[in-house]
Amino acid sequence: MNNFYNRKSLRLKHYDYSKNGLYFITICEHGNFKFFGDIKNNTLILNEAGKMIDAEWLNLAQRFSNIKLHKYVIMPNHFHGIIEITQSNKYIIGDVVGAFKSLSTNKYIKGVHNDAWIPFDKKLWQRNYYEHIIRNEESYIKLSEYILNNPIRWKKDKFYV
């Protein structure tokens, strides 16, 4: 039997991802290309695609009434953000991330066709995403600082190309 589709889940078994709480997420561009901008002198410079990613992220709070967006950063080839679920309902963190990936991919495709953005091969984002449940204030502060300092550490980042 082929085990190709037996991928290991990154999510905690039996955890309710719709319950109130804070979640740190990382979403990576599929091919590790710098589609969203660049870092010059430790400063993030978003291109038009990066500005679109920024707008789509901020629009999530209007699409999902049960979330609050906290610190985030758009890097040249990945994204980090903190999402807070403020009231449990039918939406889980995966729904929010899925909507973000889908909406931003569709807008990126339009940018490729209409504005000569760099084309991508089949997928803009990697299939999955990394998520960490923030359980206390110390963790929240540490992850917020990580997000804010990410452009400064770009050349040491594992996603640096």
N-end to C-end Cα span = 37 Å
Domain count: 1
CATH superfamily: Transposase IS200-like
How are the strands of the largest sheet arranged? 4-5-1-6
CATH class: Alpha Beta
Q: Quick one: how many beta strands?
A: 6
CATH topology: Alpha-Beta Plaits
Structural class: alpha+beta
User: Fraction of residues in helices?
Assistant: 25-40%
Strand content: 15-25%
Radius of gyration: 16 Å
Describe the biggest sheet?
Answer: 4 strands, antiparallel
Mean pLDDT: 88
Uncertain segments: 4-9
What is the number of helices?
Answer: 3
Based on CA inertia axes, which overall geometry fits? globular
Using the 3D structure, state the CATH architecture. Answer: 2-Layer Sandwich
String of helices and strands: EEEHEEHEH
What does this molecule look like?
- With 161 residues, the chain is α+β, with helices and mostly antiparallel strands.
- The chain has one domain: Alpha-Beta Plaits, CATH 3.30.70.1290.
- It contains 3 helices and 6 strands; from the N terminus they run E-E-E-H-E-E-H-E-H.
- The chain has helices spanning 48-63, 93-115, 137-149; strands spanning 21-28, 37-40, 43-46, 67-74, 78-85, 130-134.
- The strands form 2 sheets. The chain has a 4-stranded antiparallel beta sheet with strand order 4-5-1-6, with helices on both faces.
- A hairpin with a 2-residue loop joins strand 2 and strand 3 (43-46).
- The protein is globular.
- The relative contact order is 0.23.
- Residues 4-9 have low confidence and may be disordered.
